[in-house]
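Q: My labmate handed me this sequence with no annotations at all. I'd like to see what the chain might look like in three dimensions before we decide whether it's worth expressing. Could you predict it?
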Amino acid sequence: MKKKALAVFLALAMALLSACGNEQVIHEQTEQTKITLSWWGNDARNEYTLAAVKLFEEKYPGIKVKCSYTEWSGYEKRNQARMFSDTECDVMQINVGWLAQYSPDGKGYYDIEKLSDTFDLSNFDEDMLNCGRRNGILNAVPIAMNAETIYINKSIYDRYDLAVPKTWDDFFNAAKIMKKDGIYPLAGATKSIWLFCIAYVEQQKGKTFFNDKDEITFDEKDFEMMIDFYKRLVEESVIPKVEDFQRYQIDNGVYAGTVAWVSDAMNYFQAVIDEGSEVVVADYPVLGNVKSGTGWYEKPATMYAISEHTEHPKEAALLLDFMMNSAEWAELQGIEKGIPVSRSARDHLEKAGLMSGIQYEASRVMEQNEEIKPMNSHIEEEGLYQNFIDACDKVIYEKSTAEEAAKQLTELYRTII
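A: Here is what I predict for the chain of 417 residues:
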């Protein structure tokens, strides 16, 4: 009896151990690797990104993606807190200026080239990848390229029998005719008009705002010219003051033209196009025999990076590759973030017939212009453009002369750059 009882006990014990082992195997087979993804954007961007993430999870059932998204200003503040506390998402949309801010030595983000067996880098030209390098390390990959561009509501210009502007003077001539009806030939947000004024002075003086050593080349006379130009734009009703710029006035027909990023084309103009207005992308304004595009700059529209602290680099690279190179993601995103720099994404969009519309036309104008230069990220620093507008306002409201304001601005910029 004892031997029989022992045999039964051993059999039960083996069965229990076997059951525990099976439970462990089943648990291991169903457990998912969890990674995080962050981006900024409007409701439309959020919707297609969430739909694309779902397709990724269906393709890779062993990976679960937790999404974090908000509008731009909220995202920027949250990203800063996360980067300083080392709690950033595994994969994240970043602004090109953040590379210098968070990764001055190239070690603030994961080296994507270490993941080249998973993320297909062959889809990107080397000059595109160089946009995301810091200290020779590939910190991020651009989604698309971007530049400030001139958009014209041709329907409004046609109403006044005016051609689409090609020169700086064309805008002033249009203002003489339109201002009686309270219409501005052009408008733009602060940074857009700052770059608009830089382009004008660069063409006048034949030099760039920054040199290769990140030093400002403009002197007091150059800044005086910039201030006078902005003052003239405002006083002759070519543009409203930047602090008065209201995007909804595009829809209302108060602005007959706008300076805006390529990536903002659909956000700014889709409504008026849908209502029947003809919006066209104008050439970059010139003076004399200056080539179109001189004085204007391009940069990555946005970029994707992988966290330096990720615990799942391979899974993060799979998601990044799906986001930038797959047909599924490309067709859902279309050209909402600009024309993709990934060759495979472009091919997918061409085959799907999605390479069209105002944003596509803006990208073509940018890409086909050989005079546009890579943007120095310092040129977008808030301390530069906001202090410039402050200096202009002092002159407009007769609190200072242009000469005095330019001198003060030059001294102030020495403390910023």
